[in-house]
Amino acid sequence: MIYCLFWLSLTALQPPSKGAAVPMPKIDEAQAARFAELALACVHREYPNKIAHVMNGDGDALPPRQLHPVFYGCFDWHSSVHGHWLLVRLLRQFPEAAFAPRIEAALDRSLTAEAIAGEVAYFKAKGRTAYERPYGLAWLLQLSTELFEWNDPRAKRWHAHLRPLEEIVAHRFRSWLPKLSHPIRTGEHSQTAFAFGLALDWARATGDSRLAALLYEKSQAFYLEDRDAPLAYEPSGQDFLSPVLAEADLMRRVLDAKAYAGWLTRFMPKLAQRSGADWLPVAVVTDASDGKLAHLDGLNLSRAWMLEGIAAGLPPKDSRREPLLAAARSHRTAGLASVTGEHYEGGHWLASFAVYLVTTRGY
Asked: Per the domain annotation, does 251 fall within a domain?
Protein backbone atom coordinates (compact mmCIF):
# COMPACT_ATOMS: atom_id res chain seq x y z
CA MET A 1 0.00 0.00 0.00
CA ILE A 2 2.78 2.44 0.89
CA TYR A 3 4.55 1.64 -2.37
CA CYS A 4 1.33 2.19 -4.35
CA LEU A 5 0.75 5.59 -2.73
CA PHE A 6 4.37 6.56 -3.38
CA TRP A 7 4.07 5.50 -7.02
CA LEU A 8 0.80 7.42 -7.41
CA SER A 9 2.42 10.57 -6.00
CA LEU A 10 5.34 10.30 -8.40
CA THR A 11 3.05 9.63 -11.36
CA ALA A 12 0.82 12.57 -10.51
CA LEU A 13 3.77 14.93 -10.25
CA GLN A 14 5.02 14.03 -13.72
CA PRO A 15 3.27 15.71 -16.64
CA PRO A 16 2.20 13.12 -19.25
CA SER A 17 4.33 12.71 -22.34
CA LYS A 18 3.68 15.57 -24.71
CA GLY A 19 1.57 15.30 -27.82
CA ALA A 20 1.85 17.65 -30.76
CA ALA A 21 2.95 21.25 -30.71
CA VAL A 22 0.22 23.76 -31.49
CA PRO A 23 1.48 26.78 -33.47
CA MET A 24 -0.29 29.90 -32.26
CA PRO A 25 0.19 33.62 -32.93
CA LYS A 26 2.09 35.37 -30.17
CA ILE A 27 0.69 38.27 -28.19
CA ASP A 28 2.33 41.61 -29.01
CA GLU A 29 2.95 44.52 -26.68
CA ALA A 30 0.05 46.59 -28.00
CA GLN A 31 -2.39 43.77 -27.37
CA ALA A 32 -0.85 43.13 -23.96
CA ALA A 33 -1.21 46.82 -23.08
CA ARG A 34 -4.92 46.74 -23.91
CA PHE A 35 -5.50 43.77 -21.62
CA ALA A 36 -3.30 45.27 -18.89
CA GLU A 37 -5.38 48.47 -18.91
CA LEU A 38 -8.57 46.51 -18.26
CA ALA A 39 -7.06 44.78 -15.24
CA LEU A 40 -5.42 47.94 -13.91
CA ALA A 41 -8.77 49.67 -14.13
CA CYS A 42 -10.49 47.12 -11.93
CA VAL A 43 -8.11 45.51 -9.38
CA HIS A 44 -8.49 48.51 -7.06
CA ARG A 45 -12.00 49.52 -8.15
CA GLU A 46 -14.22 48.63 -5.21
CA TYR A 47 -17.66 49.25 -6.69
CA PRO A 48 -19.86 47.86 -8.12
CA ASN A 49 -19.21 44.76 -6.04
CA LYS A 50 -20.90 41.41 -5.58
CA ILE A 51 -20.38 40.00 -2.09
CA ALA A 52 -21.42 36.39 -1.49
CA HIS A 53 -20.35 35.19 1.92
CA VAL A 54 -21.58 33.65 5.15
CA MET A 55 -22.30 36.31 7.77
CA ASN A 56 -21.87 35.34 11.40
CA GLY A 57 -23.18 38.62 12.78
CA ASP A 58 -23.69 42.32 12.17
CA GLY A 59 -19.94 42.83 12.26
CA ASP A 60 -19.62 40.97 8.96
CA ALA A 61 -21.60 43.67 7.12
CA LEU A 62 -18.48 45.47 5.96
CA PRO A 63 -17.37 47.11 2.71
CA PRO A 64 -15.37 44.93 0.30
CA ARG A 65 -12.03 46.59 1.07
CA GLN A 66 -12.34 45.58 4.72
CA LEU A 67 -13.55 42.05 4.06
CA HIS A 68 -10.84 41.48 1.45
CA PRO A 69 -7.85 43.81 1.81
CA VAL A 70 -6.24 42.39 -1.36
CA PHE A 71 -8.93 41.00 -3.64
CA TYR A 72 -11.74 43.53 -3.25
CA GLY A 73 -11.81 44.93 -6.79
CA CYS A 74 -13.08 43.66 -10.15
CA PHE A 75 -16.66 43.12 -8.95
CA ASP A 76 -16.02 39.83 -7.09
CA TRP A 77 -13.24 37.97 -5.31
CA HIS A 78 -12.34 35.45 -7.98
CA SER A 79 -12.24 38.07 -10.74
CA SER A 80 -9.88 40.14 -8.63
CA VAL A 81 -7.66 37.11 -8.15
CA HIS A 82 -7.36 36.39 -11.85
CA GLY A 83 -7.05 40.10 -12.57
CA HIS A 84 -3.92 40.08 -10.39
CA TRP A 85 -2.76 36.93 -12.17
CA LEU A 86 -3.13 38.77 -15.50
CA LEU A 87 -0.90 41.58 -14.23
CA VAL A 88 1.79 39.17 -13.06
CA ARG A 89 1.61 37.23 -16.31
CA LEU A 90 2.01 40.31 -18.50
CA LEU A 91 4.73 41.87 -16.35
CA ARG A 92 6.63 38.59 -16.56
CA GLN A 93 6.31 38.47 -20.35
CA PHE A 94 6.78 42.21 -21.01
CA PRO A 95 9.13 43.46 -18.27
CA GLU A 96 10.25 46.49 -20.32
CA ALA A 97 6.83 47.55 -21.60
CA ALA A 98 5.50 51.05 -20.98
CA PHE A 99 2.78 49.59 -18.76
CA ALA A 100 5.23 47.59 -16.62
CA PRO A 101 5.85 50.26 -13.91
CA ARG A 102 2.12 50.69 -13.35
CA ILE A 103 1.66 46.95 -12.99
CA GLU A 104 4.52 46.73 -10.52
CA ALA A 105 3.05 49.57 -8.47
CA ALA A 106 -0.38 47.89 -8.45
CA LEU A 107 1.06 44.58 -7.31
CA ASP A 108 3.15 46.29 -4.63
CA ARG A 109 -0.01 47.96 -3.39
CA SER A 110 -1.97 44.71 -3.28
CA LEU A 111 0.41 41.91 -2.34
CA THR A 112 1.63 43.06 1.07
CA ALA A 113 2.06 40.78 4.06
CA GLU A 114 -0.43 42.82 6.08
CA ALA A 115 -3.13 42.71 3.41
CA ILE A 116 -2.68 38.97 2.86
CA ALA A 117 -3.05 38.47 6.62
CA GLY A 118 -6.47 40.11 6.29
CA GLU A 119 -7.44 37.64 3.55
CA VAL A 120 -6.24 34.76 5.72
CA ALA A 121 -8.38 35.99 8.61
CA TYR A 122 -11.41 36.09 6.35
CA PHE A 123 -10.87 32.49 5.20
CA LYS A 124 -10.45 31.27 8.77
CA ALA A 125 -13.78 32.69 9.95
CA LYS A 126 -16.61 30.31 10.82
CA GLY A 127 -18.79 29.06 7.98
CA ARG A 128 -16.43 29.85 5.11
CA THR A 129 -14.95 26.42 4.42
CA ALA A 130 -16.53 26.31 0.95
CA TYR A 131 -15.90 29.96 0.08
CA GLU A 132 -14.91 30.35 -3.61
CA ARG A 133 -14.56 26.59 -3.97
CA PRO A 134 -13.38 25.49 -6.43
CA TYR A 135 -13.12 28.24 -9.06
CA GLY A 136 -11.69 31.11 -7.02
CA LEU A 137 -9.40 28.77 -5.10
CA ALA A 138 -8.04 27.33 -8.34
CA TRP A 139 -7.28 30.81 -9.68
CA LEU A 140 -5.48 31.69 -6.45
CA LEU A 141 -3.23 28.69 -7.07
CA GLN A 142 -2.74 29.84 -10.66
CA LEU A 143 -1.58 33.23 -9.35
CA SER A 144 0.79 31.43 -7.01
CA THR A 145 2.09 29.27 -9.86
CA GLU A 146 2.91 32.34 -11.93
CA LEU A 147 4.86 33.91 -9.07
CA PHE A 148 6.56 30.65 -8.08
CA GLU A 149 7.84 29.95 -11.60
CA TRP A 150 9.17 33.47 -12.19
CA ASN A 151 12.76 33.87 -11.13
CA ASP A 152 12.56 37.56 -10.26
CA PRO A 153 13.14 39.29 -6.89
CA ARG A 154 9.77 41.03 -7.04
CA ALA A 155 7.95 37.78 -7.75
CA LYS A 156 9.75 36.07 -4.89
CA ARG A 157 8.74 38.87 -2.53
CA TRP A 158 5.10 38.85 -3.63
CA HIS A 159 4.96 35.07 -3.46
CA ALA A 160 6.41 35.04 0.05
CA HIS A 161 3.63 37.39 1.13
CA LEU A 162 0.99 35.26 -0.61
CA ARG A 163 2.19 31.97 0.85
CA PRO A 164 -0.05 31.92 3.99
CA LEU A 165 -3.15 32.23 1.81
CA GLU A 166 -1.76 29.76 -0.73
CA GLU A 167 -1.30 27.22 2.07
CA ILE A 168 -4.89 27.62 3.24
CA VAL A 169 -6.22 27.22 -0.30
CA ALA A 170 -4.14 24.11 -0.97
CA HIS A 171 -5.33 22.67 2.34
CA ARG A 172 -8.94 23.37 1.35
CA PHE A 173 -8.44 21.28 -1.79
CA ARG A 174 -6.72 18.47 0.11
CA SER A 175 -9.52 18.37 2.68
CA TRP A 176 -12.33 18.56 0.13
CA LEU A 177 -11.22 16.08 -2.52
CA PRO A 178 -11.39 12.89 -0.40
CA LYS A 179 -14.99 13.76 0.50
CA LEU A 180 -16.11 14.70 -3.01
CA SER A 181 -18.10 11.73 -4.31
CA HIS A 182 -19.09 13.00 -7.77
CA PRO A 183 -17.79 15.48 -10.34
CA ILE A 184 -19.57 18.82 -10.76
CA ARG A 185 -20.46 19.17 -14.42
CA THR A 186 -21.62 22.77 -14.78
CA GLY A 187 -20.55 25.56 -17.10
CA GLU A 188 -19.96 28.04 -14.29
CA HIS A 189 -17.88 28.48 -11.14
CA SER A 190 -18.64 25.17 -9.42
CA GLN A 191 -17.25 23.02 -12.25
CA THR A 192 -14.60 20.57 -11.08
CA ALA A 193 -12.78 19.76 -14.34
CA PHE A 194 -11.44 23.28 -14.96
CA ALA A 195 -10.50 23.80 -11.33
CA PHE A 196 -8.74 20.42 -11.20
CA GLY A 197 -6.62 21.43 -14.19
CA LEU A 198 -5.42 24.68 -12.61
CA ALA A 199 -4.83 23.01 -9.26
CA LEU A 200 -2.91 20.14 -10.83
CA ASP A 201 -0.71 22.60 -12.71
CA TRP A 202 0.11 24.30 -9.39
CA ALA A 203 0.76 21.02 -7.57
CA ARG A 204 3.16 19.84 -10.27
CA ALA A 205 4.94 23.19 -10.48
CA THR A 206 5.48 23.46 -6.72
CA GLY A 207 6.05 19.75 -6.00
CA ASP A 208 2.99 19.24 -3.80
CA SER A 209 2.86 15.47 -4.25
CA ARG A 210 -0.09 14.97 -1.92
CA LEU A 211 -2.43 17.33 -3.75
CA ALA A 212 -1.16 16.13 -7.14
CA ALA A 213 -1.94 12.53 -6.18
CA LEU A 214 -5.43 13.42 -4.98
CA LEU A 215 -6.20 15.31 -8.17
CA TYR A 216 -4.77 12.55 -10.33
CA GLU A 217 -6.81 9.95 -8.46
CA LYS A 218 -10.07 11.95 -8.57
CA SER A 219 -9.63 12.83 -12.25
CA GLN A 220 -9.30 9.16 -13.11
CA ALA A 221 -12.18 8.14 -10.85
CA PHE A 222 -14.54 10.82 -12.14
CA TYR A 223 -13.70 10.95 -15.83
CA LEU A 224 -11.67 7.98 -17.09
CA GLU A 225 -14.69 5.81 -17.94
CA ASP A 226 -16.79 8.59 -19.48
CA ARG A 227 -18.22 7.86 -22.93
CA ASP A 228 -20.15 9.74 -25.62
CA ALA A 229 -19.88 13.26 -24.23
CA PRO A 230 -23.11 15.24 -24.79
CA LEU A 231 -21.47 18.21 -26.49
CA ALA A 232 -24.65 18.83 -28.49
CA TYR A 233 -26.35 19.90 -25.23
CA GLU A 234 -23.92 22.79 -24.83
CA PRO A 235 -23.88 25.63 -24.19
CA SER A 236 -26.31 26.57 -21.50
CA GLY A 237 -27.39 30.19 -21.67
CA GLN A 238 -24.89 31.52 -19.13
CA ASP A 239 -21.93 29.15 -19.45
CA PHE A 240 -18.40 30.50 -19.48
CA LEU A 241 -16.81 27.05 -19.32
CA SER A 242 -17.61 23.98 -21.39
CA PRO A 243 -18.19 20.92 -19.19
CA VAL A 244 -17.21 18.56 -22.03
CA LEU A 245 -14.15 20.39 -23.34
CA ALA A 246 -12.89 21.22 -19.85
CA GLU A 247 -12.97 17.52 -18.99
CA ALA A 248 -11.03 16.66 -22.13
CA ASP A 249 -8.54 19.46 -21.39
CA LEU A 250 -8.04 18.07 -17.90
CA MET A 251 -7.51 14.48 -19.03
CA ARG A 252 -4.70 15.40 -21.43
CA ARG A 253 -2.87 16.53 -18.27
CA VAL A 254 -3.40 13.08 -16.73
CA LEU A 255 -2.82 10.66 -19.63
CA ASP A 256 0.08 10.26 -22.03
CA ALA A 257 -0.52 10.99 -25.72
CA LYS A 258 -1.32 7.41 -26.75
CA ALA A 259 -3.67 6.72 -23.84
CA TYR A 260 -5.27 10.13 -24.28
CA ALA A 261 -5.95 9.50 -27.96
CA GLY A 262 -7.80 6.30 -27.04
CA TRP A 263 -9.73 7.99 -24.24
CA LEU A 264 -10.80 10.83 -26.55
CA THR A 265 -12.05 8.32 -29.12
CA ARG A 266 -14.43 6.94 -26.52
CA PHE A 267 -15.30 10.31 -25.02
CA MET A 268 -15.91 12.23 -28.28
CA PRO A 269 -16.43 9.47 -30.87
CA LYS A 270 -17.88 11.79 -33.54
CA LEU A 271 -14.84 14.06 -33.52
CA ALA A 272 -13.09 11.89 -36.12
CA GLN A 273 -15.93 12.65 -38.55
CA ARG A 274 -15.66 16.44 -38.18
CA SER A 275 -13.96 18.88 -40.52
CA GLY A 276 -13.55 22.62 -40.62
CA ALA A 277 -14.76 24.84 -37.77
CA ASP A 278 -18.53 24.72 -38.15
CA TRP A 279 -18.95 21.53 -36.13
CA LEU A 280 -18.75 23.72 -33.00
CA PRO A 281 -20.48 27.06 -33.61
CA VAL A 282 -19.30 30.06 -31.62
CA ALA A 283 -21.64 31.37 -28.95
CA VAL A 284 -23.42 34.68 -29.55
CA VAL A 285 -24.04 37.24 -26.79
CA THR A 286 -27.34 39.07 -27.29
CA ASP A 287 -26.76 41.68 -24.56
CA ALA A 288 -23.21 42.38 -23.40
CA SER A 289 -24.50 44.62 -20.62
CA ASP A 290 -26.13 41.61 -18.92
CA GLY A 291 -23.46 40.02 -16.74
CA LYS A 292 -24.86 36.50 -17.02
CA LEU A 293 -25.50 36.62 -20.76
CA ALA A 294 -21.99 38.02 -21.25
CA HIS A 295 -20.63 34.77 -19.85
CA LEU A 296 -20.87 33.38 -23.39
CA ASP A 297 -18.05 35.71 -24.48
CA GLY A 298 -15.89 34.00 -21.90
CA LEU A 299 -17.08 30.64 -23.17
CA ASN A 300 -15.69 31.40 -26.61
CA LEU A 301 -12.32 32.27 -25.05
CA SER A 302 -12.18 29.22 -22.78
CA ARG A 303 -13.36 26.91 -25.55
CA ALA A 304 -10.52 28.23 -27.71
CA TRP A 305 -7.81 27.37 -25.18
CA MET A 306 -9.43 24.03 -24.33
CA LEU A 307 -9.63 23.02 -27.99
CA GLU A 308 -5.96 23.96 -28.40
CA GLY A 309 -5.10 21.98 -25.26
CA ILE A 310 -6.95 18.92 -26.50
CA ALA A 311 -5.12 19.12 -29.84
CA ALA A 312 -1.80 19.51 -28.01
CA GLY A 313 -2.48 16.32 -26.06
CA LEU A 314 -2.86 14.20 -29.22
CA PRO A 315 -0.08 12.58 -31.27
CA PRO A 316 1.25 14.82 -34.09
CA LYS A 317 -0.40 12.91 -36.94
CA ASP A 318 -3.80 12.49 -35.32
CA SER A 319 -6.43 13.56 -37.88
CA ARG A 320 -8.61 15.09 -35.17
CA ARG A 321 -6.16 17.91 -34.60
CA GLU A 322 -7.30 19.79 -37.73
CA PRO A 323 -10.99 20.22 -36.78
CA LEU A 324 -10.01 20.96 -33.19
CA LEU A 325 -7.66 23.76 -34.23
CA ALA A 326 -10.10 25.10 -36.84
CA ALA A 327 -12.79 25.43 -34.17
CA ALA A 328 -10.23 26.94 -31.79
CA ARG A 329 -9.40 29.65 -34.33
CA SER A 330 -13.04 30.63 -34.86
CA HIS A 331 -13.65 30.78 -31.10
CA ARG A 332 -10.41 32.71 -30.57
CA THR A 333 -11.45 35.34 -33.11
CA ALA A 334 -14.93 35.76 -31.65
CA GLY A 335 -13.73 35.70 -28.07
CA LEU A 336 -10.94 38.25 -28.49
CA ALA A 337 -13.24 40.61 -30.36
CA SER A 338 -15.49 40.73 -27.29
CA VAL A 339 -12.78 42.00 -24.94
CA THR A 340 -13.50 45.69 -25.32
CA GLY A 341 -14.22 46.95 -21.81
CA GLU A 342 -17.32 48.73 -23.10
CA HIS A 343 -19.41 47.14 -20.37
CA TYR A 344 -18.01 46.45 -16.91
CA GLU A 345 -20.06 43.25 -16.81
CA GLY A 346 -17.45 41.74 -19.14
CA GLY A 347 -14.64 44.24 -18.76
CA HIS A 348 -13.85 43.18 -15.19
CA TRP A 349 -12.89 39.61 -16.17
CA LEU A 350 -12.73 38.81 -19.88
CA ALA A 351 -9.18 40.14 -20.26
CA SER A 352 -7.95 37.45 -17.87
CA PHE A 353 -9.45 34.75 -20.07
CA ALA A 354 -7.95 36.43 -23.13
CA VAL A 355 -4.47 36.50 -21.61
CA TYR A 356 -4.75 32.87 -20.51
CA LEU A 357 -5.57 32.06 -24.14
CA VAL A 358 -3.08 34.19 -26.05
CA THR A 359 -0.12 33.40 -23.78
CA THR A 360 -0.87 29.63 -23.95
CA ARG A 361 -0.71 29.42 -20.17
CA GLY A 362 -2.56 26.13 -20.09
CA TYR A 363 -0.03 23.95 -21.88
From this structure: yes
